[in-house]
Amino acid sequence: MPTIAIVAPSGYAPEPANVARAIERLQARGWAVKNFVNHAHKFQRFAADDASRLAQLYQAADDSEVDVILAMRGGYGISRILADIDFERLAASGKLFVGFSDFTPIHLGLLAKTATISFAGPMVCEDLGTEECHEASFQGLKECLIPAPNSLPYTLNIPSLGNPAVNVSGTFWGGNLAMVAHLVGSEFIPLIEGGILFLEDVNEMPNRVERMLLQLHHAGILKRQKAIVLGQFTNYRLSDYENGYDFNAMLDFIRSKISIPIITGLPFGHVANKVTLPVGAQVSLVSDAEQFTLQFGSYPHL
Prior knowledge:
Elements: E1 3-7, H1 16-28, E2 32-35, H2 50-62, E3 68-71, H3 78-81, H4 87-92, E4 96-99, H5 104-114, E5 118-120, H6 124-128, H7 135-145, E6 155-159, E7 166-176, H8 177-183, E8 195-202, H9 206-218, E9 225-234, H10 247-257, E10 262-264, E11 277-279, E12 282-287, E13 291-296
Parallel strand pairs: 1-2, 1-3, 3-4, 4-5, 7-8, 8-9, 9-10
Antiparallel strand pairs: 5-11, 6-13, 7-12, 12-13
Helix pairs in contact: 8-9, 9-10
GO molecular function: muramoyltetrapeptide carboxypeptidase activity; serine-type peptidase activity
Enzyme class: hydrolase
Protein name: Muramoyltetrapeptide carboxypeptidase
């Protein structure tokens, strides 16, 4: 099996035992692991100071033994070093970059600046190293990065009720909604025409999700897409003040404002078991009222 490098470009590990547990589980499944994180180097809310976190990315990218670079966790931190990242250097390494949430600017920066495909997938602390083992995340990572010869093209068949009938193809891109909205107007967001935009988020009330979607709408990004695929929006609590305004009411409003279809039910986001998604790959999306399918075109794998 190939070698995974663990890096921490964002927050520090609040429970270092999760990192050790994830390493053991990866090794038990045949992966070799190189851990570039030193928990003693944490600085304020970050895994290390900005310069050290950036240097750690390069150290893993330059290591000839490493095949996959896996983010330890999200939180916050990549925005602080984003303008200093040499995306050409990362892309030239040939490594497969995996993460999500705060890692979204890495995915989108690689795509915008180098047309490099990377992978939205599980991370160490919140997914692979939790006390309860989420086997589907391990399996999804392997199926995407090390596909069996007879398993291509990589296809996800997802049961989900109530979606519109859709049959479109385009570039699959996106990530954490707050991070995508944060990058609007910057050099780090790819200008995708006719794409399929996937989004997820955590700790965001429906009105804040609506506001960020409207930002993408007013910026002209949504009208350039063929479809939006929503992952999971988790860990928020409605109050009595919402007075009937919930996530579904928000979606109804957004659907009234844009003409492109919105698909819901993607098992991705801040949830226990998640699929792994090639960001920047071509994809065919077919949906009906009971399920939808994502069939990906070619992308780099092991």
